[in-house]
């Protein structure tokens, strides 16, 4: 591949290749979900089952490159989230819903593939993306002119979220599970 992205299956892959997330990602994800719970936001209703290795391989085949290991591991744990408005529960990223592989592929097809994998999106079409081809896959936010780096990799980003001061609107008491961490979106 000549565009600088990692070719499919060119190097030995970690445990996520077999569908079992690695401990570092599992710990970061659990810590983040625990932080949401500690803020009174139960993510259980929106969590989807993990994606099968065949689903991950098909997504990678379509985009023409491998997803970073941490991203693969996250999708092996949880294939995005259900619509919070339909099932109740919070968005899983700051003002953004975690894209399932299918929703990520839809956004990939509709947008600029060179901008990275669509990890999470909001109602206005803004995305959190994972840079493809970079070591670890930097977490990027759509910017006015160009993407802005939020973290060097997904595990670091989840750790930042777990320790962030979340903005929780007063409407939360009425069942609105909206929240934000503006510096992390």
From TrEMBL:
This is SMI1/KNR4 family protein. It comes from the Bacteria. Residues 50-160 form the Knr4/Smi1-like domain. SMART domains: SMI1_KNR4 (SM00860). Coiled coil: none annotated. InterPro entries: Knr4/Smi1-like_dom (IPR018958), Knr4/Smi1-like_sf (IPR037883). It comes from Actinomycetospora atypica. Residues 1-22 are annotated as: Disordered.
